[in-house]
């Protein structure tokens, strides 16, 4: 795992791929990856799918560790350092990720359905902006991001009734 300037991960990936090719290191440095996940963001009543960095400021590099390869990666513009540990003499050495850690990251990237990112929380007051309960106000009781639904307690005739709504049917008060 390589540490980069935050926000420069994609540029580091491009630069590193170019350096690997120009220095004929494809046999030693196998892959470069910026782990991203898809999120559905709901803003101003609109759903947008955005790509979000799983580890801002980090790039995964699959490589054989050697002084030459270390220098190729370390001297790439935007790279600040390797994620490292200390040996017995106190010297910093790059720390390799375990295969199970890499597999977990790759599984999360390939999970498929985008996660819904919502700026809502339980107990928050909302107004219903669509559907049969238009213009009613209520309080969030439950949030189900997997289904894109929220349960709102709406007051009818002095009694609170739970109503299940889509994220797009409500707005914060």
Strand coverage percent: 35-45%
- SSE ordering: EHEEEEHEEEHEEEEEE
Low-confidence stretches: none
Kindly report the oligomeric state of this protein: single chain
Query: What can be said about the biggest beta sheet?
Result: 5 strands, antiparallel
- State the separation between the terminal residues, measured CA to CA: 43 Å
From the structure above, extract its key features.
alpha+beta; elongated; 3 helices
Descriptive account of the structure:
- The mean pLDDT is 87.
- Strands 13-12-11-10-14 form a five-stranded antiparallel sheet, with no helix packed on it.
- Strand 11 (137-144) and strand 12 form a beta hairpin.
- It is 19% helix and 43% strand.
- It has helices at 9-22, 67-74, 99-109; strands at residues 2-4, 29-33, 36-43, 46-53, 58-63, 79-82, 84-86, 92-94, 115-117, 125-128, 137-144, 149-156, 159-166, 170-172.
- It is built from three helices and 14 strands.
- With 173 residues, it is of the alpha+beta class.
- The relative contact order is 0.16.
- The radius of gyration is 23 Å and the shape is elongated.
């Amino acid at each position: 795992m390589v540490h980069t300037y935050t926000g420069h991960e994609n540029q580091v990936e491009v630069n590193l791929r170019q350096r690997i090719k120009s220095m004929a290191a494809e046999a030693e440095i196998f892959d470069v990856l910026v782990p991203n996940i898809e999120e559905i963001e709901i803003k101003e009543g609109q759903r947008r799918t955005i790509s979000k960095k799983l580890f801002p400021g980090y790039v995964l590099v699959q490589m054989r560790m050697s002084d030459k390869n270390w220098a190729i990666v370390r001297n790439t513009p935007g790279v600040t350092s390797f994620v490292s540990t200390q040996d017995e003499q106190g010297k910093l050495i790059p720390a390799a990720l375990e295969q199970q850690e890499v597999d977990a990251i790759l599984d999360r990237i390939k999970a498929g359905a985008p996660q819904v990112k919502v700026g809502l929380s339980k107990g928050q007051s909302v107004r219903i902006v669509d559907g049969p309960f238009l213009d009613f106000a209520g309080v969030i009781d439950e949030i189900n991001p997997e289904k894109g639904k929220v349960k709102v307690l709406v007051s009818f005739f002095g009694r609170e009734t739970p109503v299940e709504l889509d994220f797009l049917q409500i707005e914060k008060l």
